[in-house]
Each structure stands twice: as structure tokens, then as C-alpha cells.
Amino acid sequence: MLAFTLKRFLQLIPVFIGATLLVYFLVFATPGDPISALSGGKPMTPAVESALRAQYNLDQPFWVQYGLYLKNLVTLDLGMSFSGQEVRDLLARAFPVTARLAVMALAIEAVFGIFFGVIAGMRKGKAFDSTVLILSLIVIAVPTFVLGFVLQFVVGVKLEWAKPTVSGGAGWGELILPAVVLGLVSFAYVLRLTRTSIIENKQADYVRTATAKGLSRGRVINVHILRNSLIPVVTFLGADLGSLMGGAIVTEGIFNVPGVGNLLYRAILKGETPTVVAVVGVLVIVFVLANLIVDMLYALLDPRIRYA
Amino acid sequence: MRYSHASKALVLSAALALTLTACGGGTPEESANGGSEGDATKVITANTTEPQNGLLPANTNEVGGGRVMDMIFTGLVSYDAKGKPVNEIAESIDTKDSQNYTIKLAPGHTFSDGSPVTAASFVDAWNFGAAAKNAQLNSYFFESIKGYKEVSAENAKTEKMEGLKIVDDNTFTVELSQPESDFPLRLGYTAFMPLPEAAFKDPKAYGEAPVSNGPYKLTEWNHDVNLKLEVNESYEGPRKAANGGIDFKVYQSTESAYQDIMAGNLDVLDQIPPSALANYESDLGDRSVNAPYAGNATITISGYLDHFKQGEEGNLRRAAISRSIDRQQIIDKVYFGGKVKAEEFTAPVLEGYNADIPGSEVLDFDADAAKKLWDEANAIESWGDSEEFSIGYNVDGAGNKEFVEAVANQVKNTLGINAVAKPYTSFKALRDDVTKKKMTGAHRSGWQADYPSMYNFLGALYGTGAGSNDGDYSNKDFDNKLKEGLAATDPAEGAKIFNESQEILFKDLPAIPLWYQAVQGGWSENVSNVEFGWNGVPIYNAITGK
Fold first, then answer.
1. Which stretches make up the ABC transmembrane type-1 domain (chain A) (predicted)?
2. Checking phi first, is residue A143 left (phi over 0); if not, alpha (psi -120 to 50) or beta?
């Protein structure tokens, strides 16, 4: 297990370098000159322009720029944004907010998705099952921004149960509404995945054996059926954590959450390479780690799986 | 301020908008004197975007930082709601020849840390802003001052402009390299604010937590979240705060800010999102405003394009395109009857504005005249059937696509040529092609005034070799008129000459004016006395609680 974990950690290094190189190049290759855009169409004296260009290494060819970036990275210097702030500080502000949001969304989709999925699976074909199936289909079909705006308007403006947007601190309580919106679509997937998996495992021999042994219904469902049904669900949840963190642009925009999605979006528009690369780099690490945890959970859920 | 990414769209007619503004609340002076009732202790919340740079006067060139700077700093003059300069720190600004200015400061003004505002506070700040080694974005604002060339050149040997001289603590003189009558008008712009000595030791740290001399002082800046302003008790001047402070909340989209206004979670919003333009009036009722401000939207057809070179053929073709655009129809359909059709090259809120300059009929839609002009041009050199006329726009600005496509369609329908809207992925991609003179067609353009002066439009955009002269326009007669207007000692006389210079522009059409910008804003039930200024920015200091 230890060797396996270690090996996976070592794999992180080439993945990280490959991803940053690719992203660095992509930003480099996007059309437009970030420095001339800084002036917003107003004139800029040549001296100011060349000073700014030199400050961000934009006067260097691609390989030199990337080399300098890697060199600074070793000393944990992630570079500067065009606003003159340390990218490190930008990340330190945005990631905790997004992490809170993603974890809460993940918790919502996992808990409710599995709970309703199990009930639907056990009552296949009954009224509850059909209702849940139709409702989840609707949730999947409606775009996130529609869900977001509707919930924001109803809960925030009409009912006034919560403020329509998140305040600066973006605490756990305030993030509940955005987390619900963010987790809703995945919730529907988790539900359907759990349901299908439960239906399949319900027929398995070991379940019949467990029931024949006279085990209680609760124990059969929770230990025998559910545990074995969770592998595809956990795989989905693991991959989803990464998407929730990097892909929350729409939700963050609607609820004005100062998180990673918007940081990334604005940095891409401005051509602010250090910020884009740093954000993507962290997201890559999150993806890899989430997958590692998923792999380790496999062994926990299914005793037949072992990592040597 | 920088030229807008998004087109501010609007809904009401201009006439109604003006009436609304007129009853929108007291002027700052009235409020400061207690002329209008209201809770003077309430902390106002207002929307903003994250300032793009540290808060240094000469490095703030966009609206997010600009509105904060206007509140925490005060210069020699400030602008009232109509854009008229009012003395702040200045006691007098005197000149006999529009080239040499003697500026006297009213004594007794201080920064929020207690240090006095002196002649050196201005001279040092301006020198700092102009010097190449400080790489300040607004550096070019000082270009009129004698000695600017020397300090702004690469590897400059000196950092002090020759034209600035301190006479005593409360007096300094400014010598310009040529007479410029609108120089005093510029002095209320952010770039000309004074700085305390502490600023120069560590400008970066200072920009994060500036010690300033305006109606407010910055007490907290949580990046990407908010900027908190407290009333600066030591401020004495016409813009004294009528409220208990301002909390600028950073919004990533105006949509979310709009929801906050509706829920009473935000007090003042200076831009209604496009999605709410159709119904903001019914949502907010008399808590909304629609008023023109000093900005316009244009289409630039660069003079280096084939068929559009400066000269007879190019001028005929540009006029034909201009006359084939039914501006009012686009204003009605795309902007719900909002923006105000352009009648000239500047903006209606400026002093000296004239809607009836000879030649301005070229901005009126007339399909027959357009076709005739186009045919005349074809007689000089024919326009091939396979040729395309494109209008570039950046897709990252809300509303650009809609209006550019509408314009392209009208040109296509009227002239029967292949006119298309050409999307650019981002503002920076469009600007790149524009500044490198690599355009293959026309492009959307526009200007928001930095200071309330016609010259700020005409000189910066159409003067030969001017920094924002995207179309490479050059006309000696026009340049001479500009010079003449600048040399005038009487502003009214200057405006008259500037308007004469526009007659030349109407013939050459270095850009095709479309419409004037207007601001659509709204406020919550918790505040009153909300008024928007000449530049479309709310007059925050005059707002009170209910």
C-alpha cells in the first residue's frame, strides 16, 4: 500500500510539469498582447510598455519564459499578477473559498444522492422510483445558470431567507445555497448511478446468501448491497471533486463567490500566464490526489482489491 | 477611464432621463449644507470591480480603481455633476497665455495622516507619474508639461520635469510645451492627484493602503471582496461626505449585483445588466436612472485599408457606410430605445456641445444618398463582388455582438455589399490587431472622457500621431484647428474652434460616430439623494440614508 501510494505521488511530478508546460504554451499562444490591453485602448509610452514587458518576462521567447517560471517555482515564487499582487496570495485567497464550496457540494450530492438512490433501487418500479427518476432527469436537463438564477431569485429576493450573494468571508452558512446549485446536477447523477448499481447487486448470490442466513434487512442493505454498489459512485465522486473546484465559474458568478473559477476566467481573458498556470497546476494536483483517494477507497470497499 | 469592454446599454429616452436626473436629488453642495434631508450616518454600499492596480493616481486608468480614487483623493479641482471644475485644493489657477500657469493652493489642507498638502505634494507626484522608471500607466497625461520628453524616455537621465517649479509651500508654476487652454480642465483627473512624501519610499505598499486627502479614507481593502471607506474628517471642500462611509463591494457580474439591489443587499448600482434592461424600470420604479454621460460608440475604418485610404474614394465610401446605418432603429431594437443618436464626435454633456455642426447630416440614415455615394466611389475604383467589408468586435464585452451585427446587416442591406461582423475572442486580441495596424476591416471603437473637455475626444483620437489614433488619421488642417483651439484663452472660444475642427472630421470620417453612451443605474430603498455625474459614475459623497 505504501509503495503504491509513493509511486502515485512520484507520478505527480511528470503530470504536473506536462500540464503546466501545456497550459503555459496555450496562454502564450492565445492571440493578443496582454500589455497593450492593460492600457485599455489608451496610449502607453514606449518606456512604460517596455518596462512592463520586462517585468513580466514578456520580452523573452517562450522557452526562456517557461524556464524562468519553473526556476521561480522551485523557490515557491509563483510570479506576479498584472495587478502587482503575488499569485501565491491570489491562490491563498481563492482556493479555501472554492474548497469549502466544493466540499459542501460534494457532501450534498453524496449524502442525498446515495440515500435516495438506495431507496429508489430497493423499490424499483414503484411510484417513488419513477418520481425520483423523472425529477433527476429534469435536474440534469436544466442548465446550471437557470437553476442558479431561479434559486437566487426565489430564496434570495422573494423569500429573503438568504442574501442573494455571498459576502466577503464566504463562510460555510452563506455557501449552502451556491453549494446546492453546484451539487444539484451531480446529485442527480449520483442518485441514478447508485440506483442502477443497487438494482444489479440486489440479485447477487452473496445477497441472497446473506438474506438466507437470516440477517436483518438493514444489515443486508447497508453492508452487503450498498458497500459493493459504491465503487462506481465513489469513482464518479472522486472525479467530480476536481470538476467542482475548477468548473464552478457559472455558480461563482451568479452568487458572486470570490473563488477559483472566476480568478481563472479573468486571468485567461487578461492573458495573465502565471495566474492561469498556478491555478491549473493546483487543480491538477487536486485531480490526481482525488483519484488516489478513490483508488485507496476501492480496497476498503471491496476486499478482493489489493494494492501491492 | 479606459474604453469600455462592455457597452453600457439603456432603456429610457434621453429627454425622460434628463428629467429624472433633474429630480434625482440635490447637488453635492446642497447635500453637504444639509439642503436635503437624509440619514448622514449610514454607510453606503456600492458596486465596483476589483481595481486593476495598486491605488496610485498615475497608475489607475480603469473605472474599478478610478471611482475609489475619486473618493479618497482630491486634487486642485474636482468636477461637479455637470462636469464643471470646482476649486478644491486650488485657490487660483492663473494664466495669461494658456502656456504658463501659476497655481496657488488654499493653505491648511492635510492628508489623512495629518501631513500638509503643499506645492511639493503635487510637483513630486506629477514627476513620479511621468518618470519612465516608475512605469505608471497614466504617464502620458503629463505629456503637455515641458520636460516630459526627457523624463519619459527609456533610460531617462532625469526624473524632474523642467516645466514644474515650486515657488513656495503654497504656490507652484507649470510651463507647458505649447499653449493648451484646457489644461486646467484636466486637473481633476486621477492622474493629477497629490501624494504625501511617504508614498515615494515604497509606492507598492502605499498603493495597497494609501494615505490620502479626499472626502474619504481607505480603511480596508480585501482583494476581490470589498474596499471600505471611512469619512475623512480632515477633508474641507465642496464634496464633503453626506453619509457615514462607503463600502465598495467587488462584483464579478452585474447580474448578481442587480439581485442584491432588489433584495436591499446593495445600495447603489451604476450598471444595469443587459438581462434586466427590459424590466429594470418596473422592478425599481423611481429608484432608477438613465442619463447620458461623456462617452460615445463609434466604428473606425482605418485609413490604411484598401478602398478606404484618406482621399476621395475612401471618404466617399466612409460617408456611404455612415449614411447606410439607421442608428435610431438599432437604438430602439437592440437597446430598447435607449442610447442617444450621435450628432458629432464628442459627447452632449460637454461644454460647447453643438448638435448642428455643418456636415453632421452624414450621420443621418439615407439609403438613397448612401447608394449614390457608394456608386461615386465605385466610379473611382470599383469594389469587387467578392470583396468583404468586416466590422471587428470583441466577444468578451456584453452587447457588442448584437449591435455590430445589426450595423453590418444594415450596411449589407443598404449598399448590397458583403458586410459581416467579425468576432475577436477577447479585448486584448482586438486591441493587438488595432495597435499593430493589422486590421483587415473596420472595428468597433469608442471613448469615455477622462476629463470633461472636447479636446479629450478630438485630440487623443484624431490628432496626427496621437496615442489613441487607431485609424492612423492625419490631416494638417485639422491639426492646425486643434492647435488654434488650444491656444484660445477663453474656453467658449476654444470650444467654438473645436467644433469648427469637427467640420473637417465630418468630411474625412476617421471614425463613424454611432451614439452617445448613457448610464442606467439603480438604488435600493435604503438610500436617497442618488445622482450620477457627467462621467456616468454616481456622486457617492452626496448619497444619504433614508
1. 95-298
2. beta
Instruction: Please give the residue of chain B at the shortest CA–CA distance from A268.
Output: B426
Give the ipTM of the model, two decimals please: 0.85
Enumerate the β-bridge partners of residue B423.
B393
d(CA A176, CA A55): 41
Shortest Cα distance from A93 to chain B (angstroms)? 8
Residue B142 CB contacts under 8 Å (≥ 6 apart), including other chains: B126, B129, B130, B148, B152, B161, B191
The residues near B70 (Cβ < 8 Å, ≥ 6 apart) are B78, B190, B214, B537
Cβ–Cβ gap B223/A43 under 8 Å: no
Q: Are B52 and B252 in contact (CB under 8 A)?
A: no
* Contact status, residue B427 vs residue B396, Cβ threshold 8 Å: yes
More confident residue, B160 or B17: B160
How far apart are alpha carbons B264 and B524 in whole angstroms? 5
Nearest CB to A256: which of B51, B156, B256?
Answer: B256
- Coil/strand/helix, residue B442: strand
Cα dihedral B214/B220/B225/B226 (nearest 10):
-30
Helix (H) or strand (E) holding B254: helix B254-262
From the first residue on, what is the mean pLDDT of each consecutive set of 10 residues in chain A (308 residues)?
A: 84 89 90 80 82 88 90 87 89 92 94 95 92 93 90 90 84 90 93 94 90 90 88 91 84 91 88 91 89 86 76
Across the interface, of B224, B253, B427, the residue whose CB is closest to A37 is: B427
Interface size, chain A vs chain B, as Cβ–Cβ contacts under 8 Å: 162
Backbone angles phi and psi of B316, in degrees to 5 = -65, -45
Residue B355: closest CA among B367, B339, B340:
B340
Rounded to the nearest 5 degrees, what angle is found at the Cα of A72, between the Cα atoms of A71 and A76?
125
CB contact under 8 A, A32 and B429: yes
Which residues are within 8 A (CB) of B214 and not within 5 positions of it... i.e. 6 or more apart? B70, B71, B72, B73, B74, B232, B235, B239
CATH topology of domain A95-271: MetI-like fold (1.10.3720)
Domain ranges of chain A: 95-271
User: What gap in Å lies between CA A86 and CA A66, rounded to an integer?
Assistant: 18
Which is more confidently placed, B443 or B292?
A: B443
Nearest Cα residue to B540 out of B521, B514, B525, B512: B521
Compute the distance between CA of residue A44 and CA of residue A51 in angstroms, rounded to an integer: 11
Would the CB atoms of A51 and B52 count as touching at under 8 Å? no
Q: What is the CA radius of gyration of chain B?
A: 23
Query: What CA–CA distance (Å, rounded) separates A70 from A86?
Result: 16
A154, burial (CB in 10 Å: exposed 0-12, middle 13-18, buried 19+)? exposed
Q: Check: CB of residue A236 under 8 Å from CB of residue A306.
A: no
Which value, to the nearest 10 degrees, does the dihedral of the CA atoms of residues A266, A269, A271, A275 take?
Answer: 20
List the alpha helices (DSSP H) in chain A: 2-29, 34-38, 46-55, 62-74, 87-122, 127-141, 144-151, 176-202, 205-212, 217-219, 227-246, 249-255, 260-270, 273-301
CA distance B261 to B277: 14
Specify the length of chain A in residues: 308
**Which range among A205-209, B89-93, B99-103 shows the weakest confidence by mean pLDDT?**
A205-209
Whether the predicted pLDDT of B1 surpasses 50: no
Residues ≥6 apart with Cβ < 8 Å to B483: B178
DSSP A34-86: HHHHHTTTS---HHHHHHHHHHTTTTS-HHHHHHHHHHHHHTT---B-TTS-B
| Amino acid type, A301 | L
CA angle A135, A147, B269 (to 5 degrees): 165
